[in-house]
Write a structure and sequence with these properties.
Number of strands: 0
Radius of gyration: 20 Å
Largest sheet: none
Oligomer: single chain
Order of helices and strands: HHHHHHHHHHHHH
């Protein structure tokens, strides 16, 4: 089998994934005469060209762009934005994850293992029992608040976050427990409602609490979001609960994100993560403002004030993680004792 020199043999699994996906996609689209559907949804494909790059190069899934485009720009129900996030990330983020494994990038395995288990249990429960109870407006605001606060955090902590050089402890029981708890909470609440969020939560824990290098934290967040998206797709498919309108948008966007997300993983290694993170942080803040303005007639001044208060609460949570992380870092640098041996001191 001929492999171009720019693709060493370790990339064969990723190339096989792409070959299988594009082959099945083309067979289905042209076999079923759906090329017109793909063309009709070209705006989503264009949007996800940007979204998939952000998905591979930042701790933000492709749904971070897909959700606001569908819900805020195209004025579709929030449930469609959530289901589209699941569907499109199950291709883009999975492709990026396989690419990451082929590149043999270091991951924060201790926290990742906990988060995978937490998400596996809690995400299906959230999709089936929690998400149907949440009104569409609340879904929009939850997304806007979560990512708006995340953007603000990076605007004033970016220099500190990008300065970390710790690879993490792959066998740390404390990180495992934190990942298990956060994976369960984020899977049940954020992922089940918006289709994204667990990547941001785990990333925040890694860079603020564990003080992990971005080169480790971001690939780890990509893998957990890919896993949660696949779980979401399986649950929605078994339950037969896909929202109308998801299929056409997915059909147009999937071939773009299959390459776009891995491209983000590759390109960011050449240009650095700081410019990309800064740009995405600004977009997160802009989408929060946009959501508040677009829903002003329903929210009014009290509703917007409540949304701003929610952003402050999220930032308080981030700062609490950071304070604990600074204590852990001091203990780690003080001597050879393992962090988990002094974990009781952190409470």
């Amino acid at each position: 089998m001929f492999i171009p020199s720019m693709f060493p043999t370790r990339y064969i699994p990723w190339l096989l994934f792409l070959a299988v996906f594009y082959g099945l996609w083309a067979l289905f689209v042209f076999g079923q005469g759906l090329w017109g559907v793909v063309c009709d949804h070209w705006p989503m494909a264009l949007s996800m060209a940007v979204g998939s790059y952000a998905a591979g190069s930042t701790p933000m899934g492709g749904g971070t762009v897909g959700f606001p485009v569908l819900v805020l720009l195209f004025d579709m129900p929030a449930s469609i934005g959530r289901d589209f996030s699941f569907a499109v990330q199950s291709i883009g983020m999975v492709s990026a994850s396989i690419f990451i494994f082929c590149r043999r990038q270091v991951l924060a395995w201790s926290m990742l293992r906990g988060a995978l288990l937490g998400s596996l249990v809690a995400t299906p429960l959230g999709i089936l029992f929690f998400a149907p109870l949440v009104p569409g407006l609340w879904v929009k605001l939850a997304f806007a608040v979560i990512w708006g606060s995340f953007g603000v955090l990076h605007l004033y902590r970016l220099r500190e976050i990008t300065a970390h050089d710790h690879a993490g402890d792959p066998e740390c029981p404390l990180d495992y427990r934190v990942g298990l708890l956060l994976g369960a909470v984020a899977g049940f609440s954020a992922v089940s409602v918006t289709g994204v969020g667990i990547d941001m939560v785990i990333y925040a824990a890694l860079v603020l609490l564990s003080r992990v290098d971005l080169k480790v934290a971001i690939p780890t967040s990509v893998v957990i979001m890919a896993f949660s998206s696949v779980v979401g797709v399986i649950v929605k498919s078994v339950a037969g609960d896909w929202q109308p309108g998801v299929f056409g948008n997915w059909l147009a966007a999937a071939p773009v994100v299959a390459l776009g997300a891995p491209l983000g993983v590759f390109v960011v290694g050449l240009i650095g993560r700081t410019p990309t993170l800064l740009a995405v942080a600004l977009l997160c803040v802009v989408q929060f403002v946009w959501a508040c303005v677009s829903e002003w007639q329903i929210l009014g001044a009290p509703g917007v004030a409540l949304a701003l208060l929610a952003v402050l609460v999220c930032l308080w949570g981030f700062e609490a993680l950071r304070s604990s992380g600074l204590r852990r870092e001091r203990l780690r640098l003080r001597g050879p004792r393992r962090v988990e041996e002094v974990a009781p001191q952190l409470s």
